[in-house]
Each structure stands twice: as structure tokens, then as C-alpha cells.
Amino acid sequence: MPIATVNPANGETIKNYDALSEEEIERRLATAESTFRTYRTSSFDERARLLRRAAGLLDEDTESVARVMTTEMGKPVRQARAEAAKCAKAMRWYADHAAELLADEEPDESDVKDSGALRVLVRYRPLGPVLAVMPWNFPLWQVIRFAAPALMAGNVGLLKHASNVPGTALYLEDLFHRAGFPEGCFQTLLIGSGAVERVLRDPRVRAATLTGSEPAGRSVASVAGDAVKKTVLELGGSDPYIVMPSADIDRAARIAVIARVQNTGQSCIAAKRFIVHTDVFDAFTEGFTEGMKALKVGDPMEEETDIGPLAGKQGRRDLEELVVDAVESGATVLCGGVRAEGPGWYYPPTVLTDVTPEMRIHHEEAFGPVATLYRVADLDEAVAAANDSPFGLSSNVWTRDGTEVDRFVRDLEAGSVYVNGMTASHPAFPFGGAKRSGYGRELSGHGIREFCNITTVWHGA
Q1: Which of 66, 309, 344, 426 could bridge 81 with an S-S bond, Cβ 3.0-4.6 Å?
Q2: Is 234 marked active-site?
Q3: Which one of the listed residues 185, 268, 335, 452 is annotated catalytic?
Q4: Residue 340: which pLDDT band, with cuts at 50, 70 and 90?
Q5: Catalytic site residue 268?
């Protein structure tokens, strides 16, 4: 895949970029290693000062960087601004909390005595250069949620961003440079996917994090495993959105539309499978479908646009094939289902029901504004339907019954359970999945410790 900015609203190539040469890759790896040796000794106060400066610059740049994201991957510009604001918030959160999250820990005194020590400390030390392989769908946020904790922990970052968002990738490198971080603290590597293994195997790279497709995750995990390097993987999801009879059905239907089509439906944590109790199925379906029909599809640079183009032509083709397969196998289309002709990679908001396990869309992630509806008879069937997926990133549950909440929290196979609300990431809460959605956690204290050397310091007499 060429490294290029291609406007998905019209398919026009705006700019092509040359991949880094082997010599330049080597120079950047050497710089990362050299910078880490000194940056790792910097204080939390100094790192926090730099990160807050980066957040302030991002606030100033919100409009311009939002338009870069929208141009490169089609995100409605209102959502792009919100993404930039969220990134600045996360940087400030880690600047405020990192020292506390990584403070030395002292085990229980009785255990210290039992070990024969006078004192024992558990200390969190940085690992070194970390390679981040990031996707295009949230081109700023996916990077910042790695970079902010990694930099505050004393690591340095190497970004291999998706090849269709090079402008955003280069902006990030420039942002940290302008904020005053030492050269080499955060570097963008404009390289193709074929060069990732060479970088990951380099002994100066100590760990890797990837957000992306399952095949990409398998590839990075395989190489990192062979090289015995730590990885964190977030590989997508097909999140259930369960609605039970005690729920506020009107609100559940209204929020369901937002939960499905945020970022034009191109979100790992978007609700994708709507599992509704038979007693409220018709009422929910009516409200949800009408909400999907009312969405405005159009130019992502226009303020009133709800649904922009999909980020890539192949992505639209993949989504369309899932819908065609479902319809040919007996699914019913309640709205959408046929893309309009014309420039750009648009696909209409689509609702499918009568979906069965034989259909591809039942088990594959639909990365776009396509929702599947399932009717269930009771709590047991709802849990079984929700877990009937190879993914387990997040889940949404709508019920006012405390017993049902307890059951869902206990039995749903997912990294998060959101009750009477839609899934959303926040810097204070751990984020990650189960099953084929990946492993490890981002954000919160769990995320910042993923790339630390957890060191036991034992003091004898």
C-alpha cells in the first residue's frame, strides 16, 4: 500500500510520500536508543511539563489537525475536533497522575520480614524504545493513548502509522518536537508494513503495541514472540448491545444509533450486534431504524454531516460483501443496504435483521455503519448470543434489573461492560479486550505499567 493522502470523499490523491530508506531507519533507531539513555533519568515533573505543553499546542492546533484527519480518512470534522480535544485531555491526565501511578510500592511488612529483608520496594522502570503500529480510524487518539503514558513512564516512542494517514503521523512527531521533548523521544517512521518486522526485531526496540486487524496482530505478536518482546494488542470487536424489557427503550434506541455510527461506524468499540428481548424488540427496532434513516450522509467537512465516507475503497467493498452475503442468505434489510453511485467511498446507514449463524456478518466485524438485530427470548439467550463471537472487546447492557446486571457483568466475555450507556474510552479506565480482541490494557494505571520493567528491590542487613 503506498504511503499517501487520498481524500475518501472523492478518491483523489493529494500527496504521495517516500518511505524511509534503510539508512534513515537506522539513524532513527540509533537516535531513539541514545535519547532513551538520558530521557529515562528525567523527572516526572519535567516529563509532565513537556506533556502539558504538547496538550496546549494541540488545543491551539485543533481546527487545522481536525481538517487533516478529515481529509485523510473521512471523519466528520465535528468528530475530528472532539478527537483532538480528547487527546489533549488524556495528555493532561497522565501529566497529573503518572508520578502517583508509578510510585514505588512497599509490600506488607510481614512479608518483608518473612523474606529476611530489612526493606523491599517494587519500582516501575521504563523499558526503552517502544514501537507503536497504529490504525487510521482514530489517527490521533490511538497514538496519544499509547504515547502519553509511554512518555510519562520514561520510554520513547517509534510510530508506524497506517499508510493512509501520513499527514497526521507527521503532525504528531512535530507536536512533540515543538513541545520541547528531546529529539528522539517520539519519531514517526514512514515505512510500509513490510518493514515492520525489521524494526521490531531490532534489539534496540524493547516492546510493541498494535491496534488494528487480527491478521496484523498475529503477525506482530509472532515476530515479537520469536524475539521475546512484550506486546499489547487491540484487534477490534463486534460488540453486543443488549436491551432488556426494563430498559428505557426510547433512550436505548436513541443512544444505539450513536453507538453504531460513531466515526461512520469505523470503530472497534462501536456497538455492532443489537440483541433485543422479544418483549421490546418491535419498539426498539422501530426507534432504532428511524434514527438510522434520519442520519445525514455527506461531505465530512460540512458541520451537519453525521456519516462521512468510509476511509478506503477496499473497506467499503468488504462491508458491501458482508451485507450482500447476509441478504442472499435470508437477512432482511430494514434500511440502507445499497450504496449510492458517485464519487467517494460512501455507504448508507444499514439495519439488518433475521441474521443467522451461517452468515459471514454473524461472526465477522462489520467496519462501517451496518447494524445487525437479534431477537432473544430471555436472559440466558441474551448472554449466549452476546458471547457467540470470536471477539470480546466491550459490551453494552440496557436494563434496570440489578439481578440482570450482576449476571451480565459475571458472564459476558468482554473487556468492558457498560450498563445503560454506550462504550467510550477514558484515560482513567483500563481499555482492552478478551478472546480474539487482543490482550493487555491501555489507559489508566494498568496501561502505563504495561511498558515498565517491574523491579523488585530487596535490601538486606
Answers
A1: 66
A2: yes
A3: 268
A4: confident
A5: yes
